[in-house]
Design brief:
Number of strands: 4
Oligomer: single chain
Shape: globular
Strand content: under 5%
Number of domains: 3
Largest sheet: 4 strands, mixed
Structural class: mainly alpha
Distance between the termini: 37 Å
Strand order of the largest sheet: 1-2-4-3
Helix content: 55-70%
Order of helices and strands: HHEHHEEEHHHHHHHHHHHHHHHHHHHHHH
Length: 489
């Protein structure tokens, strides 16, 4: 893809060019790591936060493509997937094959979507400039499988040394950590290119500097372990100064800005979902009752109410959760984006309380041209199944998984809808697709074989004969990928 002339003139050689690890081999390593992360209890598929993060991520990918940073080969071969973790620490990390790990703790501390975009743009650049490939090339005496094991050990070490030792022992842990640490030159390039990608994607460049300032402040306070990002991405005066100079040239407004209401609410969601502990949940659930609440700005009042409602729901106090959600709906009225987030939260609370009438009044079923957004689609599926109308959920879900075949949660919802209709063959096939989406090919083979066994037991309708044929095809695909995994060992 040709770059616009103004961009091409300023483009410097990529430090990642000439990496010795092929894109295909890097993707194999990334798939292995992702497969383990999907199994991690801390992995989180939260439709609301996923939608928010992916909105930023996809805008950055489009900008990287338009700038010529994202080659057609990498775009086709890599996963370009963001995996959320419940960890409350401030961390994000690029992984081989186009995967990105993002802790909820980082979403919870950023003050704006621009600050979050700065982190994602930086990590995206590590991938597009092939920095990971170069680091893996330094370990070229190791097999790709061992490289993947080393990186998994580094990720385990970020939680506890004991977890790392369960993966690897001895000096290998040091090599593992080095797999996630980039050189200063690579960090500077990720800043420079990431800044350009972020600006072209339409985000406020000031977010890069305010994020650096936040990290620098944490560093000065002698990081207590809550900011792993500081250790894998060490800040230097030169890097901070370079970003400040770029901001000055861009004419960005100085000083902190009031967070957008919707972002403040979603940051609150990230904090509540990151295993904060019962005592903190109780404190958040009572915060709107404090006198200081009335002095807060509208955005911060919305964030406090959001955290209070979600905390009360996590504590199974449905009455208080519903009350705070109602107040949140009032506070967000007139702000379409924030009001939608308030409705989504209120609908989740209503479903948790099995208040189906209230949930039905809250879920927006108006279908836009592109179909229902994912959060509303999954909520509506829950509602229809509980109402005893699963057939109303099947067609929208089927359309969705056709477009997004790697959406495990959507396949799981479709399996539930089919089971509610007593269509076991289709339900088991959907369960197999859940495992395919999570790269668990052994689990997928098990489910598809179970479906094939069921189809052989009795007479099938014409539609089920088609489903049985699809199952046979998917079984062969799953078995083929399982053999490929075995060969990699």
């Amino acid at each position: 893809m040709l770059c616009p002339p103004a961009i091409a003139q300023n483009q410097l050689p990529a430090l990642g060019d000439g990496g010795e690890i092929s894109a295909a081999a890097e993707r194999q390593i990334g798939d292995r790591i992702a497969r383990e992360l999907y199994r991690d209890p801390d992995y989180l598929d939260d439709p609301i936060l996923d939608e928010y993060v992916l909105g930023i991520w996809n805008a950055l990918l489009a900008a990287a493509r338009n700038r010529g940073e994202l080659s057609p080969e990498l775009e086709e071969r890599f996963a370009w997937t963001v995996l959320l973790g419940r960890d409350g620490s401030v961390n994000a990390f690029a992984l081989p094959g186009g995967y990105l790990g993002l802790h909820l703790g980082l979403i919870g501390v950023v003050n704006s979507r621009d600050e979050l975009a700065s982190v994602l743009a930086h990590e995206l650049t590590h991938v597009t400039q092939r920095h990971i490939s170069r680091l893996m090339a330094q370990q070229n005496r190791q097999t790709p499988l061992m490289i993947g094991a080393l990186i998994l050990a580094a990720l385990a070490a970020s939680k506890s040394p004991e977890a790392a030792n369960a993966v690897l022992t001895g000096g290998q842990a040091l090599a593992a950590q080095n797999q996630l640490n980039f050189s200063r030159d690579m960090e500077r390039e990720a800043d420079r290119v990431g800044f350009g990608v972020m600006a072209q994607a339409g985000f406020e460049p000031r977010g890069f500097v305010t994020m650096f300032e936040k990290l620098q402040q944490a560093s000065r306070l002698n990081d207590n372990g809550s900011f792993p990002y500081l250790r894998s991405h060490p800040l230097t005066t030169e890097r901070i100064g370079d970003m400040q100079a770029r901001i000055a040239l861009a004419g960005a407004p100085p000083g902190p800005q009031e967070p957008i209401m919707a972002h403040a609410m979603l940051a609150a969601r990230a904090r509540v979902l990151s295993y904060p502990g019962v005592d903190l949940l109780r404190a958040w659930a009572k915060e709107p009752d404090l006198p200081a609440f009335a002095t807060l700005s509208p955005a911060r009042r919305a964030a406090v109410l959001y955290a209070a409602a979600l905390s009360a729901e996590r504590l199974r106090d449905h009455g208080r959760a519903t009350a705070w959600a109602r107040r949140l709906l009032v506070v967000t009225a007139g702000n379409p984006e924030a009001a939608r987030q308030a409705r989504l939260l209120a609908a989740d609370i209503a479903l948790a309380a099995n208040n189906l009438g209230l949930a039905a009044s809250l879920i927006d079923t108006a279908v836009p041209a592109g179909g229902l957004p994912r959060p509303e689609l999954l909520q509506l599926t829950q509602l229809r199944v509980r109402e005893g109308k699963p057939e109303l959920a099947v067609d929208p879900l089927q359309t969705w998984v056709t477009k997004y075949p790697m959406d495990a949660a959507a396949w799981q919802a479709l399996a539930a809808a089919h089971r509610a209709q007593n269509q076991l063959l289709r339900a088991i096939r959907a369960e197999g697709e859940v495992q395919m989406a999570r790269l668990d090919y052994a689990g997928a083979v098990d489910r598809f074989k179970a479906a094939r066994t069921l189809s052989a037991k009795g007479s099938l309708e014409a539609a089920d004969h088609i489903e049985a044929s699809i199952i046979d095809t998917r079984l062969r695909v799953a078995e083929s990928r399982l053999r490929e995994q075995a060969l990699q060992r």
